């Protein structure tokens, strides 16, 4: 047998990996002044010193593997949320947990239903898992749960509902979600992605942490990346029926949740009240910024998350360039809109000024 390599293109990897970058992160603009990072929906606050100290203490043990099941973190989450420990799986960010769910349902021919536009990583995770994406258009910027229920068929294994929706900031109400669940077959997994739940102030919004006991096919994803300000550490958690959490633990990428991250998340839960005060501040800034942009004449929808959505359509890319010239990173979805995170007061004011100037001279070429 010839040992010559007859293939011209090298090792044969999955075709999905030949696509250009599947996900482009938001980058800091190169501008004269300070970069204002409003592109990734992060907390603008430095971590609390107590959290930094917890990470530093944990760093003394990094010659050892991390606690495999994240037992301290699971126990603390259980106490804080009043949820039994066997219903909780912490992971290296909610994206990692979502990836495990995509893999868990990803047999040949499987389909996953989600709204579009929604979180950019859903199609990426679907493609990587070899699952077909069924995208259901938003209606008025929000989930059309009726249309989503209609798209559930024999091949559907999972439905993802992003609540509040990234990037539009819209929310799903408790009643409409309960009606939707009645239409979902019990062998289809429903994932409520609640990455921004702590920023919700609308009392009618569904909470997965209330409903997961009622529906064994419902799981909830929460994260420490947003309200808890730990995006760089990668910690999130999943809550759901033990029949699902047990299997997610089997699909788990071993030791992916590291020791300093676990320690920081436990400390963050202990200091929850102080961190939630920061969220309250962000909610106030959200209203202030929305009102300022509307006063400048921009169209801005109400948001229940730590960002605002500007449906600028064909002007989106030019507007984002203008923001970059002013040192402000935003997230642009060409021909659709721009998402801007709620930042520190100074950053929000700088963004409002850019918007006022934009409304006076809308094209970046003038
Ligand atoms: C809807 C949604 N889910 C999940 C995530 C990611 O969360 P994590 O940092 O926990 O992986 C994000 C981050 O932007 C998001 O917008």
UniProtKB/TrEMBL annotation:
Catalytic activities: L-histidinol phosphate + 2-oxoglutarate = 3-(imidazol-4-yl)-2-oxopropyl phosphate + L-glutamate
Its EC number(s): 2.6.1.9
TM stretches of this protein: none
GO molecular-function term, one example from the UniProt record: pyridoxal phosphate binding
A single BP term in Gene Ontology: L-histidine biosynthetic process
Cofactor: pyridoxal 5'-phosphate
Domain Aminotransferase class I/classII large: 38-356
PANTHER family on file: HISTIDINOL-PHOSPHATE AMINOTRANSFERASE (PTHR43643:SF3), HISTIDINOL-PHOSPHATE AMINOTRANSFERASE 2 (PTHR43643)
HAMAP family: HisC_aminotrans_2 (MF_01023)
UniProt xrefs under NCBIfam families: PRK03321.1
Protein name according to UniProt: Histidinol-phosphate aminotransferase
Source organism per UniProt: Embleya hyalina
Record lineage: Bacteria, Bacillati, Actinomycetota, Actinomycetes, Kitasatosporales
């Amino acid at each position: 047998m010839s040992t010559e390599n007859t293939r011209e293109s090298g090792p044969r990897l999955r075709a999905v990996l030949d696509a250009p970058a599947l996900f482009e992160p938001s980058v800091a603009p190169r501008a004269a002044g300070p970069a204002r990072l409003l592109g990734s929906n992060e907390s603008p606050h430095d971590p609390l010193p107590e959290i930094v100290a917890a990470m530093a203490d944990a760093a003394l043990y990094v010659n050892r593997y991390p606690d495999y099941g994240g037992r301290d973190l699971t126990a603390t989450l259980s106490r804080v949320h009043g949820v039994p420990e066997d219903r909780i799986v912490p992971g290296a960010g909610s994206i990692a947990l979502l990836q495990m769910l995509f893999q868990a349902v990803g047999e040949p021919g499987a389909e996953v239903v989600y709204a579009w536009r929604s979180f950019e990583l859903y199609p990426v995770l679907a493609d990587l898992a070899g699952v077909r994406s069924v995208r259901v258009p938003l209606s008025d910027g929000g989930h059309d749960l009726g249309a989503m229920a209609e798209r559930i068929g024999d091949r559907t294994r999972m439905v993802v509902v992003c609540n509040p929706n990234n990037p539009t900031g819209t929310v799903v109400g408790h009643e409409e979600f309960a009606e939707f669940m009645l239409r979902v077959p019990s062998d289809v997994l429903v994932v409520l992605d609640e990455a921004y739940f702590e920023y919700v102030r609308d009392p009618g919004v569904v909470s997965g942490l209330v409903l997961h006991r009622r529906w064994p096919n419902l799981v909830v994803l929460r994260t420490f990346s947003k309200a808890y300000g730990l995006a760089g550490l990668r910690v999130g958690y999943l809550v759901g029926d033990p029949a699902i959490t047990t299997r997610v633990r089997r699909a788990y990428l071993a030791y992916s949740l590291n020791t300093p991250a676990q320690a920081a998340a436990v400390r963050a839960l202990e200091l929850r009240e102080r961190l939630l005060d920061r969220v309250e501040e962000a909610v106030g800034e959200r209203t202030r910024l929305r009102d300022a942009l509307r006063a400048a004449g921009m169209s801005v929808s109400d948001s229940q998350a730590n960002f605002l959505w500007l449906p600028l359509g064909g002007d989106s890319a030019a507007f984002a360039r203008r923001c970059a010239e002013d040192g402000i990173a935003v997230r642009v979805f060409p021909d659709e809109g721009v998402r801007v995170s709620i930042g520190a007061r100074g950053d929000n004011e700088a963004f409002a000024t850019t918007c006022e100037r934009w409304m006076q001279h809308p094209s970046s070429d003038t």
